[in-house]
Amino acid sequence: MGHKTAEVELHYERCCGLDVHKELIVACFRNGTKSTVREFGATSKELQKLAEWLDSVDCEMAVMESTGSYWKPVYNILELLGLEVMVSNARDVKNLPGRKTDVKDSEWMARLLAQGLLKPSFIPDRPQRELREVTRYRKSLTEERAREINRLGKMLEGANIKLTSYVSDVLGKTSRKLLEAALAGEPITGITIEGMLKGKMNGKSALLVDAMDGVLSKTQRLLIKAVLDHIDDMTRRISDLDDIIRGEMEKYDEAIRRLDKAPGIGVQSAQTILAEIGLDMIRFPTAGHLAVWAGVCPGNNISAGKSKGGKTRKGNQTLRATLVQCAQSATNTKGTFFRAQYDRLVVRRGKNRAKMAVAHSMIIAIWHMLKYESDYVDLGGDYYNRFNPEKKINMYLKKLKELGWVPPVPAVA
Fold first, then answer.
1. CA–CA separation, 26 vs 17, rounded Å?
2. Rounded Cα–Cα distance for residues 299 and 19 (Å)
3. Which among 240, 278, 304 is positioned nearest to 123, based on CA atoms?
């Protein structure tokens, strides 16, 4: 007897797999069980030819791997011409070992797409994608500026200038005046410092004189001037980006106000978060979906009914880093739920895991604020003390007895 081949239900009868590279795009159009492979360039003219070909064959859906930034021009052109296209995670479209060619990759993606085995990645609309580029560039410049400030501090230490030991901001007004005087070769005395401070730092003038008593060579002066110019240039560029972001995020003003009320989240952090996730929470059915997408949710690693602890996924790296920074700031605010959660977990889970747990709670709160357009309501620093108070009292009494405490004997009436 002959064997019958099992029929696979097709989700897309006419679909296309795109293997995208910097200068080459290999497209495999699948019509039922028949496949047609074509190659296109990566220029706009070539991408228009690709779009015209897909439109002429009535392609229902095209899919490509999210490789670096090479997928963006392809997505932009196909989206602009009204063609359906999805971007899928690289781990979902990975081909079997030993079958790695451009043609086979495109055929494999088309086959997976036809059978409904691929999930689309969240790709926001074009205005939000452009807004993301601005906020991410600002974040990169801010981080680079912080590195330059640290580099400046190391250079001053190398010249035996201990300014960072007595001032909190090495780029503050007083610090900048002292640095400019030192770079100009002017003698720094208590009188000159008193004139700069104008009585604002009484008692520190003598300390600052000793701190500025260093040795700056000609090369060190030139190098420090170059670093200061670089910092000033980045400060100006960051300010220009702030103006651009404020102009593009007018419709986000109410959401920014809500997020700014939450502990640890400032205006710039709120702008970055909203640029990444947008305002419409329909794309995230639950807060858990958003937490997984942000990469602040524990992974699953269960075998034989036992949980072995799962690492967090990478998720959206910009959003994840911003949430962790906000969590770090929130844990410094006393009397809040985030601080209570951190104190409860840091003892047995460590600082990094405790901060990640706070970031997880923070993204859940953000989802509810955006979903229901509600303000942040803090649960309070005593949130965990409200549960099982008698059990907690007995636990603390037991610890006191272990330390030698003897409960008082009640007086006999």
1. 8
2. 29
3. 278
Q: Please tell me the number of Cα atoms within 13 Å of 390 on its side-chain side.
A: 0
Answer for the pair 287, 368: CB distance below 8 angstroms, yes or no: yes
Please report, for residues 125, 245, 278, 334, the alpha-carbon distance to residue 132 in angstroms, rounded to integers and kept in the order given: 11, 10, 10, 32
> What does the alpha-carbon distance between residue 377 and residue 383 come to, in Å, rounded to a whole number?
12
CA 205 to chain centre: 42
Residue with tokens 């620093």: 381
Pairing of strands 85-88, 61-65: parallel
What torsion do the CA atoms of 397, 344, 265, 141 make, to the nearest 10 degrees? 140
Query: Which residues does residue 64 pair with via DSSP β-bridges, in sequence order?
Result: 18, 87
Q: Could you tell me if 290 and 393 are in contact, meaning their C-beta atoms sit under 8 angstroms apart?
A: no
**Torsion region of 185: left, alpha or beta (phi above 0 gives left; psi -120 to 50 gives alpha):** left
Beta strand ranges found along 115-224 (DSSP E): none
What are the tens digits of pLDDT across the range 71-128? 999 999 999 999 999 999 888 888 777 778 899 999 999 999 999 999 898 999 999 9
- Which fold would CATH assign to domain 128-250? Helix Hairpins (1.10.287)
Q: Same CATH topology for 14-114 and 128-250? A: no
Domain borders along the chain are: 14-114, 128-250, 251-372
- Token pair of 232, please? 């000033």
Q: What CA–CA distance (Å, rounded) separates 199 from 179?
A: 19
C-alpha triplet 242, 244, 250: angle, nearest 5°: 95
Question: What pTM was computed for the model?
Answer: 0.86
> From residue 23, how far is each of 52, 106, 327 by CA, in Å?
19, 16, 42
Whole-number Å distance between alpha carbons of 263 and 329: 8
Say which CATH class 14-114 falls into. alpha beta
C-beta of residue 74 within 8 angstroms of C-beta of residue 41: no
C-alpha distances in angstroms, 370 versus 57, 321, 393? 41, 20, 39
Q: Which residue has the tokens 């959401």?
A: 255
Model pLDDT for residues 134-154, shown as the tens digit of each residue: 999 999 999 999 999 999 999
Which residues are CB-neighbours of 383 under 8 A, at least 6 positions away? 337, 340
Residue 40 near residue 14 (C-beta atoms within 8 A) = no
